[in-house]
Amino acid sequence: MPARHLLRLAAFVLTAAAGLAAQPTERNIDESKVRPYTLPELLVTRDGRRISDVALWRDVRRAELLEDFAVSTYGRTPVFPFKLRAEVVTTRRDAVDGLATRTIVQLRFFDDPAAPQISLLLYVPNAARGPVPALVGLNYYGLASVEPDPALPLSAQWMRPTKEMGIVNNRATEATRGTHASRWPLALALRRGYAVATYYYGDLEPDHPAGWRDGLRGYLLRREGRAARGPDEWGAIGVWAWGLSRAREYLETLPALDPRRIIVFGHSRHGKTALWAGAQDERFAAVYSNNSGEGGASLGRRNFGEMIADSVRVNIFWYCDNYKSYAGRAAERPVDQHMLLALSAPRPLYVASATLDHGADPRGEFLAAHHAGPAYALYGYKGLPSAEPPPPDTPAGDRVGYHVRTGAHDITAYDWEQFLNFHARQP
Q: Which residue, among 368, 370, 352, 359, has the nearest Cα to 303 in the 3D structure?
């Protein structure tokens, strides 16, 4: 390896190690101990031009922010040849007590049968009289966890070892069935006239540090004859977001769905993924995140709850390797999460928090949504109505929406109901 490359690598490792050492070992959950911080300017270009119109935002600033997030945080999403093929595996026309037609569709991208592919689960309301909007998001434990129907197949993919979800030896079991049904209130959405689509995020990359070897990243690296990714190449969040865009491309081909109203959403790490997917892919009609926290909706410069150092210590594989260098020095990152949220503009954006979810920094999530408002103002939309969060269980906002639910880190029927109410208010 050339000497200059060795020096560059050594500098990067030392910077990352110093950042981890500089980070406090205990998370702060005391608002009085939040240190002052300064957010980077949303509406100022790199060369110092202040943005006052949509043209400069779209022509210059938006691309700058996407590049900065790619290089510093999520990694660059590669462009590579693929061909989307869809095969309907099963259909049930009386699912969810007769409310829906349920379809499982296999989405393939390469001729190689060993290549990663997606098993997409889709529910379409039977009462629909025309094309309906659709919510598309990831699930944590496979299709069978979404609904307690024994006809749904158990995923054979690797899963996080979660005993209460029926995961044994990193695989789903019969005990996994319906374990996350509370997070997927299908009847609520279907009765409101919404289709729901989901796939298991581990279909494209298992959620563990070496998962890239068995997922899409490893597959592409082997095809290219490479053994490892570069420091600004995509992490797992980028892979999962890529899959959401492919699911959207399939859904828009279905006559039963309105291609102009396909909404991406997610909870926790899937909320981070939904935000990155929505930022990159403007074909998503709206973007909703729930309890997405650090690396999602929460401001990275606020020393409250989970910080960058916490993320990279355990889950650096979610991000690009460059993200390590900002552990303990979030102020040096060229972006913060209000800018990620602003990349959804002018589309509807909803951020949801929970009162007991201290790790995700509910106030930091609210403030990021608040500070995304100026991008929406360029399009004539109002941001959140106040610089202070609303009381618990009190949704606020029109084009940018927010609520903090009473309770813990979770996604519930209450959260879904607020998403649906918010979408119903959109012009």
A: 359
Give me the helices (H) in 252-395, please: 269-280, 308-315, 337-342, 362-371, 373-377
Separation of alpha carbons 372 and 354, rounded Å: 20
**DSSP symbol at 399:** S
Q: Is the pLDDT of residue 19 over 80?
A: no
Whether 312 maps to a domain, the answer reads yes
- Bridge partner residues of 198 (DSSP): 121, 137
State residue 424 phi and psi, 5-degree precision.
Answer: -65, -25
Q: 149 forms bridges with which residues in the sheet?
A: none
Q: Please write the tens of the pLDDT for every residue from 355-391.
A: 999 999 999 999 999 999 999 999 999 999 999 999 9
Query: What CATH number should be reported for the domain holding residue 207?
Result: 3.40.50.1820
* Token pair for 218: 């490893």
Q: How many residues does the chain have?
A: 427
What does the pLDDT look like over 100-121, one tens digit per residue? 999 999 999 999 999 999 999 9
352 backbone dihedrals φ, ψ, rounded to 5°: -120, 140
14 occurs within a structural domain: no
- How far are the Cα atoms of 103, 139, 157, 173, 405 from residue 179, in angstroms, in the given order? 20, 11, 17, 11, 21
C-alpha to C-alpha distance for 369 and 399, rounded to whole angstroms = 11
Contact 215, 165 (CB under 8 A): no
152 within 8 A of 184, measured Cβ to Cβ: no
Active site amino acids: 268, 409
- The label of the residue with tokens 């529910």 reads 123
Number of neighbouring beta carbons within 10 Å of residue 132: 19
Distance CA 157, CA 282 (A): 30
Q: Is 94 a member of any domain?
A: yes
With helix as H, strand as E and coil as C, how does 123-166 read? EEECCCCCCEEEEEEEECCCHHHCCCCCCCCCCCCCCCCCHHHC
Tokens of 313: 């210590």
**CA quadruple 177, 179, 184, 188: dihedral positive or negative?**
positive
Cis, bond preceding 346 (omega within 30 deg of 0): yes
- Torsion sign, CA atoms 246, 136, 141, 151: negative
- How many Cα atoms sit within 13 Å of 23 on the Cβ side? 32
Whether 249 is covered by a domain: the verdict is: yes
Q: What is the pTM of this model?
A: 0.94
Question: What is d(CA 364, CA 301) in angstroms, rounded to the nearest whole number?
Answer: 9
- Count of domains for the chain: 1
Give the residue numbers spanning the domain of 163.
85-424
